[in-house]
Design goal:
The protein has 11 helices and 25 strands. It is of the alpha+beta class and about 500 residues long.
Length: about 500
């Protein structure tokens, strides 16, 4: 989705949906939240692409067409159906858009389900079941998708992982609104098979784990054809808990500390620091590209660290006195104290390191990730949260070990931001940014949450407006951190300090 710039006939990307593979009738879960102004015409553009890989660069995928309209048009229609336009072609499909006002409810609901005796759908196996949740729309007939669980492979008796969703997203804060739940058998080709469905309500779910929350899964096509058909298995509620969704600022005001660590790439692919073509080249008071990122992104993070003591790390260089390659050395040269006084201190230490180390390689991320993970692992009470900012010029040399380190770090109070500088192809970095597909370790374990944000610095360069490019970069780099922060706090049931205690509604015991 693109939004039109104020006062200009140009669009900027606002966000992207998830990828739905091998499907001509996709129903996207991703929602876009934006401010609505009655007094303005807010022009929107939606572009559709056929994705052949996880590459973030849209130019490498097939453009299928677009739809353009205003937010007011969507708001004034229950469902706005518009033809997808692609050059002079007709019959390119239809895009269906809807909007709803977001209420003030901050409650979230944590749910977990299991199933028993599901129908076998695979010819040479069992089933790979997953659940899809929908809420009924105001017209009383149509439904909007709200959540999908993960698939559980090769079983007729799956237990899905717990998930947390805002009450507003699940049921529009209407406890009696009909919720439809479909149970599907996942197929690699994308043509999933419907096992069956059932309906419930938020009010019904909050009655807890009892017989009223045991649901028969009905496949209505089978029911029409088979007179003796009963059901296609049962789905059982395992957990239901409603609790407040605290804000990022609730935790910050309650005293939770944000600790930033900065890691800088000292590999030889950056070029010799004393040559003008080098990304590390320093010339008088003119900042190089690494310093620009440090000042732009680091300044924002620095505001949330009351100590203003920031560890500065380097990786990929030969360091004195023995010239061994190090992947988590301290920029200030101190043997056991990496702390620098604020971002200015990190920049001073960075410049000092350029004059004392020798650029080498390879580009290994796992050591600096594990360095920060060690500290995060010792502070899991929720009073501290750690952000690792990695600035790099090239592709990762230890991708498998980096993925393993990210999977481990995802269980900790930690986020990772990667900024790519220079003209390299950073497409491999997109594998680490788990917006669409979670990072998976070498043993097949997927990260429990998305903790990585990757951005390419050159995408934010604006020769005519340096201030504008800096603000865009900082926003893009840091915008996911509050949600990642809240995901961890919610997952571990950590409440902000110094706030009135609200007793959650808990329904995970048998009544």
């Amino acid at each position: 989705m693109y939004v039109e710039k104020m006062g200009k006939d140009a669009f900027v990307e606002f966000g992207r949906t998830e990828i739905i593979w091998n499907n001509l009738n996709p129903d996207f879960v991703k929602k876009f939240k934006l401010d609505y102004f009655f007094e303005e015409r807010q022009e929107l553009k939606f572009e559709l692409y056929d994705m052949d890989s996880k590459d973030h660069n849209l130019q490498k995928h097939d453009y299928l067409g677009e739809v353009q309209c205003s937010l007011g048009e969507i708001c004034s229609s229950q469902k706005l159906k518009l033809p997808i336009k692609y050059r002079s072609k007709s019959n390119c499909g239809t895009m269906i858009l809807s909007a709803e006002e977001v209420g003030e409810s901050r409650d979230v609901i944590s749910l977990q389900f299991k199933a028993e005796g599901l129908d076998k759908m695979d010819l040479f196996g069992k089933s790979d079941p997953f659940l899809v949740f929908y809420r009924q729309n105001d017209d009383g007939q149509s439904f909007t998708i709200t959540h999908k669980t993960e698939k559980v492979k090769r079983t007729l008796n799956p237990t899905w992982k717990p998930f947390t969703i805002p009450v507003m997203a699940l049921c529009g804060n209407d406890y009696d609104r009909i919720l439809k739940v479909e149970c599907w058998d996942w197929n690699m080709g994308g043509s999933h098979d419907l096992i069956g469905e059932f309906t419930t309500t938020m009010r019904q779910l909050t009655r807890g784990v009892n017989m009223s929350n045991v649901y028969e899964v009905i496949n209505f096509e089978k029911k029409k054809k088979k007179s003796k058909y009963n059901h296609s298995g049962t789905v059982l509620l395992e957990k239901c808990q409603v609790h407040p969704r605290y804000s990022f600022l609730d935790y910050i005001r309650g005293g939770t500390e944000i600790h930033t660590t900065i890691a800088i790439d000292f590999t030889s692919s950056n070029g010799k620091p004393n040559e003008p073509g080098s990304l590390h080249f320093l010339h008088g008071d003119t900042p190089n590209i690494y310093e620009k990122v440090l000042r732009t992104v680091g300044r924002v993070l620095e505001d949330y660290d009351s100590t203003k003591k920031i560890p500065g790390l380097g990786f990929g260089a030969r360091i004195p006195p023995d010239g061994k390659v190090a992947f988590d050395f301290f920029l200030n040269g101190h043997p056991n104290n990496p702390y620098c006084r604020g971002i200015n201190g990190v920049i001073d230490a960075y410049k000092h390191a350029l004059n004392t180390v020798y650029l080498h390689g390879p580009t290994n991320f796992a050591p600096v990730i594990r360095h920060v993970s060690t500290f995060a692992d010792n502070h899991k009470e929720g009073h501290h949260y750690f952000v690792l900012l990695i600035i790099t010029d090239g592709s990762i040399s230890d991708m498998a070990r980096t993925k393993d380190a990210i999977v481990e770090a995802a269980t900790l109070p930690m986020s990772i931001v990667i900024v790519g500088v220079g003209d390299e192809d950073f497409s491999a970095m997109e594998e680490l940014d788990g917006d669409n597909v979670r990072v998976t370790g070498s043993d097949g374990t997927a990260a429990v949450r998305d903790i990585v944000q990757f951005v390419c610095f050159r995408d934010f360069l604006d020769a005519n407006n340096d201030v504008k490019s800096k603000s865009r970069l900082a926003r893009e780099v840091l915008e996911e951190i509050p949600d990642q922060f809240l995901d961890w706090m919610t997952m571990h049931e950590v409440k902000p300090r110094n706030l009135p205690t609200v007793k959650p509604m808990s329904y995970n015991t048998i009544v």
